[in-house]
Design goal:
By secondary structure, this protein is mainly α. The chain has helices spanning 18-27, 33-50. Helix 1 (18-27) packs antiparallel against helix 2.
């Protein structure tokens, strides 16, 4: 017998774990694709401004 399993860990990126929350909402059908794809660039912009433009 073959058992296939997959474990997902959501990335905990952002002060408030924005990517984790967005991914969970998308997978549960509460968030549209466009909103999910906007989460990462928005988070990158927050990091960029917080670090003075350096990453």
């Amino acid at each position: 017998m073959t058992i296939l399993a997959e474990a997902w860990e959501y990335p905990r990126i952002g002060n408030n774990r924005e990517i984790k929350k967005a991914l969970k909402a998308f997978l549960s059908g509460k968030l549209e694709t466009d909103a999910l794809l906007q989460t990462v660039p928005a988070l990158k912009n927050m990091v960029k401004s917080a670090t003075g433009g350096q990453q």
